[in-house]
Amino acid sequence: MGWFQRRRVRKFAEKAVEQQNEIFVFGSNIFTEAFIENLIEIGAQSKVALISDKKLAWIDEVKDEINVLYEEKIEEYGKRNLYETIGFTNAKKVIILHEDPIIIQNIMSFISDDELKAILLAQFAPPFVHYLAGQKQGQIIIVDNLFQIVRKLYEQMDLPLEKPPVIAIPVPKDLGSKPLSELKIPTVKIINILREDSKQRIFPLDEPIQENDKLVLYLEDAENSLKNIVDFLGNR
């Protein structure tokens, strides 16, 4: 790690201590974006630190709300110095949303604190992580979807929300050509379609669905709505 890089990481680590960041997220993909958006919606942004392997527009949009470190050199994820410099002083959870098994393995190799929980998505967790999760139950957690994580974090936060939040979720893969009017989730209202790669980002519900679209949802009952979304996705 060069001098300038070490200085960047130290600045990120100092900010993490100052803000008492408890949730460290590794990733930059669409799942990371959706997860960070949901954390902001439930008011958890002050608790979040993001380590991203790419500089992307959506991260620039939220970097004033969350603590961000860009580490674009993939080889750095395989070096102990990166993790020692970050420190994870107040960390309670490390959430790994990478799809590359090598990066996942490198991060897991250096996250060893018994008090620190590592959470990964089942679809990206390599076989060795599934094995470790069996050996270290409660410390390494594999979940089926992001909303299982969001719901647990929400339940742990005593948030006096004045109104239910609005969140965005990826369109279910098996929706196919079915109209969105057939998509029913109790205590959840589908507001519109979010299309990030379009100049016009918001589309009405009768717009044909495209790959990577998201559904913008209004949660009529913050706690029960999150549970209903988790149940809905878990049954698909």
Provide an overview of this structure.
The chain has 236 residues and is of the alpha/beta class. The protein folds into 2 domains: 3-156, NAD(P)-binding Rossmann-like Domain (Rossmann fold); 166-234, Alpha-Beta Plaits. It contains 8 helices and 10 strands. A 6-stranded parallel beta sheet has the order 3-2-1-4-5-6, with helices on both faces. It has a 4-stranded antiparallel beta sheet with strand order 7-10-8-9. Helix 6 (127-135) links the parallel strand 5 and strand 6 (140-143). The N and C termini lie far apart (44 Å). Residues 158-164 have low confidence and may be disordered.
CATH class of the largest domain, please? Alpha Beta
Number of strands: 10
CATH superfamily of the largest domain: NAD(P)-binding Rossmann-like Domain
N→C terminal distance? 44 Å
Tally of separate helices: 8
Strand content: 15-25%
Q: In angstroms, what is the radius of gyration?
A: 18 Å
Biggest sheet descriptor: 6 strands, parallel
The name of the CATH architecture of the largest domain is 3-Layer(aba) Sandwich
Helix content bin: 25-40%
Shape: globular
